[in-house]
Model the fold of this input.
Amino acid sequence: MLRVVAAFLVALCATYLIGSIAATQFVLSEVVALGPKVPWSVRLETTGQDLVGLAGSYLPLLALAFVLALPVAAGLARLAPAARPAWYLAAGFAAVLALHLIMKAVLGVTGIAATRSLAGLLAQGAAGAVGGALFHALTAGRRSPVPRGA
Done:
């Protein structure tokens, strides 16, 4: 159980780091498109500020999305074990995509500005896919504590 919790936390943190960094860079690229130059020092400082600033809102939402999606992947992996890596990758991708689409549809809110574009939304989904794949890799080969057929 501790191994699964640790894998969850590592996958969640990886998704958060990639998603937050990508979101920051998407926003800064929109600023650059308006004309001003954004030096690398500002990009790094802004990225650091976003990593800290989004931790209280985006990180818990990603955790909720993964708590819902990863058990679905586990169930599907029991039905089709050979596709286990794909189930977890797809679950991470779908979880993050669904998070943003549901927030927009239900609350009318774009929580992460980068997701206003298809490329930004797909980048967030890709961050989730990395997290899902990482969770699979860290939990692959673990034995189920409940015997089959029990």
Observations:
- The mean pLDDT is 93.
